[in-house]
């Protein structure tokens, strides 16, 4: 809540203070709890497919329904928190998500599994929707970027941790125990968030708004050609990215490769190339301009896809590293540029970027599986390269050249 009358306005936790450190730790826990659960099944899809008797594309729905649930829930969670408070709402979201996650391993059939995953994703939507608003209200402005970085680091590490933990456990005890292990760790992280999050002092409750007022803030962000181009990047590039990681495990688990689930999980270490590229592109964009770096990063994705069409495992892994580095570079530029282009309604612009991002993950991530199971990896990779090329065309045609926004980006990217 806001400070009472007569008390100086809350200036936020200063960097290095106990409250600031607790906020960093709490947001890191929230990121781990969210994205460890969201993608924990991605490396286990071949095991899910065999045990439940479903196709590769059907198995990938366990990822798609969760991301659909998250995408649809981002805006509703943000409006709830305007009245109920950031910490209370995030706490409810992370507890609900953990409860649904603990129920996932007990799913008696594929239909119940999809239902629980959809509910889990919808609950998880309350974290990315509110984390940045929470830290913006509770830390000093000059420290907000560092606090946001802790949250983004938590999301990245959470996504990687969930995949790496689930694979070896699933090799030993099946996919259900693999997901249970991740959900138990997420429960510990959720408890960490609830215990560490400082009491909010900068939150001011907002009155409820009618549909017209909400729509009035959204429509300008949907009429801007540059913003539409960035939403296209989110949809097409994230869809391509998730598709590669959804189905590469099926390719490498089959003859002649015969990778076990634990080895498939190690593929996600390629994410570390994205950690490097996402840091590099900021400096490159200052020198060459955002659009140029965005196009070059997307071109790297296309080149990486082409290399993965080769048969030798070292070539596949090299292509995966290049593809992943290109995606994170492009995504870092596009997500940051969204906030810079939205001179008004930045929260709504960011929410629409998130919506396009997770919608691409859901729709393309599922439909690419139909192509993979009917025509194989090469055909799917070629189709994804075409989608990335379409993203490049949209960027080249609709985004401004040069460096129209030379200031540093502060809008963090959605997590993985």
UniProtKB/TrEMBL annotation:
Annotated compartments: Cell membrane
UniProt xrefs under Pfam families: MFS_1 (PF07690)
Membrane topology classification: Multi-pass membrane protein
Keyword entries, A-Z: Cell membrane, Membrane, Transmembrane, Transmembrane helix, Transport
PROSITE patterns hit by this protein: MFS
Gene3D superfamilies with a match to the protein in the record: MFS general substrate transporter like domains
Residue ranges occupied by any Major facilitator superfamily (MFS) profile domain in the UniProt entry: 23-403
Predominant location: membrane
Membrane-spanning parts: 23-41, 61-80, 87-106, 112-135, 147-166, 178-197, 227-248, 293-311, 317-343, 355-373, 379-399
Family to which this protein belongs: Belongs to the major facilitator superfamily.
Protein name listed in UniProt: MFS family arabinose efflux permease
Organism name: Arthrobacter stackebrandtii
Lineage of the species this protein comes from: Bacteria, Bacillati, Actinomycetota, Actinomycetes, Micrococcales
């Amino acid at each position: 809540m806001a400070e009472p009358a007569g008390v100086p306005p809350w200036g936020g936790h200063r960097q290095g203070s106990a409250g600031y450190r607790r906020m960093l730790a709490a947001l890191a826990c929230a990121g781990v709890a969210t994205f460890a659960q969201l993608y924990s099944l991605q490396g286990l899809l071949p095991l899910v497919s065999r045990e439940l008797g479903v196709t590769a594309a059907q198995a990938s729905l366990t990822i798609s329904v969760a991301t659909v649930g998250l995408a649809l829930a981002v805006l509703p969670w943000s409006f709830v928190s305007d009245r109920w408070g950031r910490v209370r709402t995030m706490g409810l979201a992370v507890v609900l998500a953990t409860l649904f996650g603990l129920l996932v391993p007990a799913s008696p059939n594929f239909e119940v599994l999809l239902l629980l995953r959809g509910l889990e994703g919808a609950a998880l939507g309350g974290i990315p929707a509110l984390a940045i608003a929470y830290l913006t209200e509770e830390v000093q402005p000059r420290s907000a970027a560092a606090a946001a970085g802790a949250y983004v680091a938590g999301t990245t590490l959470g996504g990687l941790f969930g995949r790496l933990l689930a694979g070896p456990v699933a090799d030993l005890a099946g996919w259900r125990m693999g997901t249970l292990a991740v959900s138990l760790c997420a429960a510990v992280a959720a408890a960490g968030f609830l215990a560490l999050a400082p009491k909010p002092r900068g939150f001011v409750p907002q009155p409820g708004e009618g549909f017209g007022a909400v729509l009035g803030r959204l429509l300008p962000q949907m009429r801007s050609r540059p913003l539409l181009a960035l939403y296209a990047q989110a949809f097409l590039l994230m869809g391509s990215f998730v598709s590669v990681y959804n189905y590469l495990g099926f390719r490498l688990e089959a003859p002649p490769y015969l990778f076990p689930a634990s080895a498939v999980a190690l593929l996600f270490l390629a994410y570390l190339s994205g950690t490097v590229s996402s840091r590099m592109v900021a400096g490159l964009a200052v020198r060459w301009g955002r659009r140029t770096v965005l196009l070059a990063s997307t071109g790297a994705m296309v080149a990486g896809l082409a290399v993965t069409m080769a048969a030798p495992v070292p070539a596949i892994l090299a292509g995966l590293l290049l593809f992943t580095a290109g995606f994170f570079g492009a995504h870092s530029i596009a997500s940051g540029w969204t906030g810079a282009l939205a001179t008004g309604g930045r929260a709504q612009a960011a929410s629409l970027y998130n919506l396009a991002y997770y919608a691409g993950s859901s729709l393309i991530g599922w439909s690419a599986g139909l192509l993979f199971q009917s025509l194989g990896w090469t055909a799917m990779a070629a189709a994804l390269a075409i989608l990335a090329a379409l993203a490049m065309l949209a960027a080249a045609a609709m985004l401004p050249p040069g460096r129209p926004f030379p200031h540093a980006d502060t809008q963090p990217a959605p997590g993985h």
